[in-house]
Structures are given as structure tokens and as C-alpha cells.
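Problem 12. The chain below contains 191 residues. Write out its predicted structure in C-alpha cell notation.
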Amino acid sequence: MTPSPSVVLAVILDEPNLDRMKTAVGDCLIEAYTADELTAAISNAEILLGGWPTESDIRSASHLNWFQAFSAGVNSYPLKTMEQMGIALTNSSGAHGPQIAENVFSMMLGFAVGIPDMIRFQDKCAWKKSVLEGRKFELYGQTILLIGLGAIGEAIATRARAFGMTVHGIRRSPTAKPEFVDEMFDQSNLH
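Solution.
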């Protein structure tokens, strides 16, 4: 007897979202968090949520209709095979904008005040105040150029504006300039 088609969850969710998923899908949900578990579960899956299926995983997934990637980028997946097999692929473009923008700003702020140098000096039990003071700067009044103004770029741009930075942006497809961008350029300005 062939097992019933299933929904394979290959990304770890927090408990409230996992509970919601279990309620929505019921007994058809299979949790497969490792590569081996995914390989074992995918052959009867109709839907795959997350994970990193290999070419052979996809080829063995004769029932798979939809793969929801939990990343924005999908170039690492076997796209041609998925297309040949008629598997719909959706991604999470835009879902990570705020988190990535906050990470970018934590790095920018750390660089502006010299945290990488401070850590290196701390590891050597040294304090080089004169070196640190000469390298520090403020983000306020600086200019940032964002190459790509999708969800992540826009989230960074809004934060940059809040920090008093001048924001320049480059977007692949020409659109109206967002209000939080001071100047827009097209890709021909990259060289």
C-alpha cells in the first residue's frame, strides 16, 4: 500500500507556528529536519516547506507539486529539474527585510565606533585609545549607496534615513523614487 501524500516540513519553526501548522495539516505533516530525513520523506510529499533538497531528492519526489523556500534566494536549488517536473516554487522574498536591515545597522554602528579594533585590542590585553579615537565616525551625515532596493534595501534605506544619512539607491527596474531615498540611479551608473 502506498503512503498518503504529505506535507514535509524541513525548517524548524517556533512552537506557536509549529502548533498552527500541525492544526492546519493534521496527520499529513512530516517533520524532516536533517538531509537524511528529507531524503526519506520527500518521495510522497505533495508540499515541501523549507529545507535544501538535492537534485536526487527532487527527482524522487514524484508527487511534489509545491516547494516553499524559506529564503529569498533560490539559485542553489535544482531549478531546471523542478521546472521539468512542474513543481511550483515560491520563496520568502521580503520576509527578512527588517531582520537583515537591523543586522546591517548593527555592523555599521560597530564599524563606526571601532568595535572590531576594540575586540582585537582586548584579545591582546591592550588599550590603544589614540588608534581608536582616530578611526571613529558618526553615521549621521554619511552617504549610503544601496545597490538593490527590494524589501531588504528599502528596509535599510528607511533606517539610514532615520540615522540622518543621505540615501542613494540603484534599482534594476526603474520605478518612482521612494520618499526615503534622496537620489535614484539605474544600473548603467554602476560602471
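Discussion. Residues 97-113 form the longest helix (17 residues). Students who got a different answer should revisit the alignment rule from Section 12.3.
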